[in-house]
Fold:
Amino acid sequence: MKPRSYLALARKAFEANFRRPDHPFKLTFCITYWCNYKCQTCNIWQMKPRDELRLDEIREFMRKSRDFLWVDLTGGEVTLRKDFVEVAHAVIDSCPNLLLLHFPTNGYLTDKIVENTRAIMARRPEKLIITVSTDGDEATNDEIRGIEGGWQRQVETFRRLREIPGVEVVLGMTLSGKNVDHFPEAYAAAEKVIPGLTYRDFHVNIVHESPHYLGNANLELRRHVPPTKMLAAVKQVARLRGVPLGPVGYLERAYLAQVERYLMTGRTPMRCHALSASCFVDSWGNVFPCTIYDRKLGNLRDVDYDLRRIWSSQTSVATQREIWNYDCPQCWTPCEAYQSIMGNFLVPGRLTPEGGGPAPDPATQSG
Structure:
């Protein structure tokens, strides 16, 4: 255990309550858009990407961005990159205070995923969390994810990853109109084949649309789902999960607790910390505020892979102010919600657009 990593995150989270840091402490980094599934809730699988960032470019980016404390490596399917382990090593080696490295996987290539995970753990990251995606029981999952036999491989991947010392692994389920009532069946099916499974082993969120990342804005995934129906499903999940254990459990509980406000109003339930605590970088080096807001701020290749040059630009500062004032698409995706919860922990008056207090604008108080 590295106490300095926990202290660094606590310090940055505290700072984010009052001002905009000079570098994000969380990064969501899509390292490839290649995917071997055909999910009905995402159009990434239809892409045939070319000229994605090379390993040497990623290493240079990370070498100049040593202040990340929390990094999500996402895709596509991350393990389809032949150099995925080297990418993960670049993150771990470059960020001395890295507390959390996370990546999701569709779980299909079990042997490869397990082998990659063991190689990553050889670098001894402080905390490695892996989310294995699932969308229901076997029939529902394979229908939504478009691959016959996928569920069997996903649960096998989950089982084998659990055997690796030091790895935390969860099953990730996104609720949409295609499976909104299906969590009990999803859990029951997994429990039959995974010894010792508990409700806390599931991470559940609600579906979102993203034009620049998921490419699924045309699917209208929540259009035919009454907010009350989605809310009832989320409340059931929260009740079954029970009292949270540890910081990650607390964040998941807080996320689920604010879903009602989001579903009933269509508004982000608290001031968002995209471009204050975090940002999103795609596989070509394009920098965006987050996975939802389609506002390109620059490209790493144009600034010698120095994120700070984009982060500190007038465009980024102005965009962050827009987000702070709720002038953005509005979402409640965990990719942005967790750091927003941390950044709104101390300062009152940030839980609704109407406020309740003069919360300071971090865009005008950069540190």
Summary: Residues 16 and 343 are 5 Å apart (CA to CA). The first strand starts at residue 26 and ends at 30.
